[in-house]
Design brief:
By secondary structure, the chain is an alpha+beta fold. It has three helices and 14 strands. The strands form two sheets. Strands 3, 4, 5, 6, 8, 9, 12 and 13 form an eight-stranded antiparallel beta sheet that branches.
């Protein structure tokens, strides 16, 4: 039998190595934002770290365990206008609901397009949590600048595990401030538990309000001024 030339043998070794690396790709840490990231440590004992959301506003499922918050890797506003719709980034706050292009008032006459509706969109990498985590409670929290009770009751909170999936309704029960502004906390325990179990690297959420009849059915939320946050209690 003739031996392969040295160059041909080297090429075959390189191809085999490439296939081997491809086969092991699932063992590498995924990166939703195109960058490497550090995973949270498994829970041993008890510890707590919550960004922005006051610790007393997080509804613990029980004593003990680990509580760890997660920041979104992308936050944006989807503007739904009559003809052209688009995504807007870099906003400090935004108004959820259907906003008129011009305010109603005596002597105000405008015959153009009526206005637009806005939706808050965000993405989290839930693969950051340890794969063996046993989720006890998970919430999505966002800050309302005004009209908080109306927003807590009427907000449509939806999520999906992967791009292309169907959005599903989430966020029951909900907790919120008694006054006009503050943090609204929505329970997403079952949804987050599955996302963590499957190590989903890009989980999407949307928060919106149905179109109302007047300005009283609009609520302003913080976007970059104080970003939404996801908090998980696990063992």
């Amino acid at each position: 039998m003739k031996a392969f030339p040295t160059s041909a043998a080297a090429a075959l070794v390189a191809v085999a190595a490439a296939f081997a690396l491809t086969g092991c790709a699932d063992t590498l840490v995924p990166s939703a934002a195109g960058m490497n990231y550090e995973k949270f440590a498994p829970c041993t004992g008890s510890r707590s770290h919550i960004s922005r959301l006051p610790s007393k506003s997080f509804p613990r499922a029980s004593t003990g365990g680990c509580v760890q918050s997660l920041d979104p890797f992308d936050v944006a506003t989807w503007i739904e206008a009559p003809i052209v719709s688009y995504k807007e980034r870099g906003l400090n706050t935004m108004a959820l609901g259907c906003a008129n292009l011009v305010p109603d008032g005596a002597g105000c006459s405008y015959d153009g397009l009526p206005g637009h509706a806005a939706t808050l969109q965000m993405n989290f990498n839930l693969g950051t949590y340890p794969v063996a985590a046993r989720v006890q409670r998970a919430v999505l929290a966002f800050y309302a600048e005004n009209n908080a009770p109306f927003l807590r009751q009427n907000a449509q909170i939806r999520g999906r595990l992967n791009t292309g999936d169907q959005l599903q309704s989430l966020g029951s029960p909900r907790y919120g401030p008694q006054g006009t502004k503050g943090w609204i906390v929505a329970d997403i325990t079952d949804f987050a538990a599955r996302a963590i179990s499957e190590q989903r690297a890009s989980v999407s959420f949307e928060i919106s309000l149905p179109c109302g009849r007047n300005e009283n059915e609009i609520s302003t939320v913080r976007v970059l001024k104080s970003q939404p946050v996801l908090v998980v209690q696990y063992r």
